[in-house]
């Protein structure tokens, strides 16, 4: 066959240095490469949308974690969706759409491991990085499995206007819970209450979170889903109900801190309230993604669940600056870079 | 009946002020009272042994917790064992032996709520405050229920020469686990290894706990039973195995801290390792004390479990000074004041 790839240049963003604090422009290197024909058992994806996630900050550190750090000089790790444009792989023919960890670049070669087929007609492509992707799965398994949510409970979620947080609140509402979201600024707070149906919002930038939690969760918090860590985690710990579950999903307030992390001083509330705090990684639930997808799609079709993406249009070169929106709390919903 | 109590004076220790930091002699008041004949449905206990527990420090604070604080002017709350010397209660006749929360005094009147009958011939009275009492129950339910211990796992316990800690280690050995105890000083470390059969001991006063844990638990910690909090909790969090359980039983390193508690900076290890940290109170397992007693007595009779009490002989007036042994880490085993 004649190649569609012969004249194609792949623009990439590589990690050139490990950041201290906020990841500034100096840690990135912009490179180009030709795109090779796929070898047997592989295929080439033209990436359309790139996922931007708080976890990326951890991947940049040279530290032991649940996956190896991104190596210096490597294309930055990132989830993405796109179309297969050349293929020597049975399951992923040319013209099919896929999601996977394709990196911050325009084209990726894959052997199919960890790649999911997606249906571009069922939902917008970007939503496969949001509520129909890892983001939604994280909310689903975190809330239902780790949080062991029961109907009618009081749920508090931090980072509530963020990608995972807004899905968590919507899922808890579907289960008949009282849902309080903690977010930064009046627009986000209005959005989660007026558009998503949260029962209440707490603006951590203008309110005392501890006092507000006392008012909004007077009988205590049954499930606290934490995306931020720091002082907000501490405030929530102080308001746990007996038998509460604290779901550790992230700690974005701490990711760019230089020096030691701040631990939750109120952790002994776990003892007083016979409560537990538990961490999880969505990858451990990979064999149940189909189950989650079916439920999430069903709720979307019933109009009970909406996927909100904060889409920035641009090129891969805009990745470094776009990422900072996350750490400055400037995104509402799932942050996605659209490079089509 | 003629009273055995007519000339009896009950010496008591009352909480006169709330401590800041270490509870010094100035916070206690020593009082005497006559002992009244028991009203219908009550009985009088002559206390022989008084339990001294780290939790007492929390009871002295004027703060919301799992039970109300000791009120100023009240007899200090304490567990104890003794003999019934006057009774108008069906279940607790004169001459029977009992354990219960009788306070720091020589005589207590009780209506029987929360009181257990004990057998002075089956074990020394003091052991009903130790391994056959709340101390042993705490180890039992904390390790087996909250810790969900499985055979062959690696268990680390802090405060390992303390009342609960030494029982935890022995129970884990009975279940075929590798057991590492963290304790202060060479005598305690030698005791838990040589006498109790722990696989290893770490002396936190002379060793770097993090390094020592890396050496003694090279594949990570499956269950960490925490009695101390602070830096040792942090060091253990940094060494968790995947799926680990952290059992929060106490935080003695923090109880006398003035100012804010120090939280565990490494708590995000719970996320990376898909681990959980959970608190509990032994009182919640009251309906299973009989089950625990039967098992614990069985293991003691088989010679697999020993109860070690650190008995101080004296009078109730010696309570304030004896209590400080706990917070200075000077007890080995269960600290008991023998006032016979």
- Using the coordinates shown, work out and report the CATH topology of the largest domain in chain A: Quinone Oxidoreductase, Chain A, domain 1
SS content category of chain A: alpha/beta
The CATH class of the largest domain in chain A: Alpha Beta
| Cα radius of gyration of chain A in angstroms | 20 Å
Low-confidence stretches of chain A: none
Largest interface: A-B, 32 and 32 residues
Number of domains of chain A: 2
Largest sheet of chain A: 7 strands, mixed
Roughly how much helix do the residues of chain A carry, as a percent range? 10-25%
Topology order of chain A in helix (H) and strand (E) letters: EEEHEEEEHEHEHEHEHEHEHEHE
Average residue pLDDT of chain A: 93
- Named CATH architecture of the largest domain in chain A: Alpha-Beta Complex
Can you walk me through this structure?
2 copies of one chain form a homodimer. In chain A, 24% of the residues lie in helices and 26% in strands. In chain A, the strands form 3 sheets. In chain A, strands 3, 4, 5, 6, 7, 14 and 15 form a 7-stranded mixed sheet that branches. Chain A has a 6-stranded parallel sheet with strand order 10-9-8-11-12-13, sandwiched between helices. Chain A has a two-stranded antiparallel sheet with strand order 1-2. In chain A, helix 2 crosses helix 8. The two termini of chain A are 25 Å apart. At the A-B interface, helix 7 and strand 13 of A face helix 7 and strand 13 of B.
